[in-house]
Specification:
single chain, alpha+beta, globular, two-stranded antiparallel sheet, 79 residues
Length: 79
């Protein structure tokens, strides 16, 4: 069955990338995730990239904790 033959119903929202990725790998739906978070699953063939004409990517903030010396420093970065 091709991606065009499938329909997705319902919504699920989570702040856990690991949880959403696992659900997608298990075939429970589709998600908008960054390539950084799913590159290994794509390379292994566990996930495929879908191009949807009626969907616009959502801009999200990326937070990182950077270790500098003995202090942890929080910085906001926009990609």
């Amino acid at each position: 069955m091709s991606a065009k033959d499938r329909s997705v119903q319902g919504r699920f929202r989570s702040s856990s990338v690991e949880g959403v990725r696992t659900m997608c790998v298990e075939g429970l739906g589709i998600a908008q995730l960054s390539y950084w978070d799913i590159r290994e699953e794509i390379a292994a063939g566990h996930l495929v990239e879908l191009h949807l004409d009626d969907v616009t990517a959502v801009n999200v903030d990326v937070w990182a904790l950077l270790l500098q010396g003995s202090k942890h420093q929080r910085e906001s970065m926009y990609l």
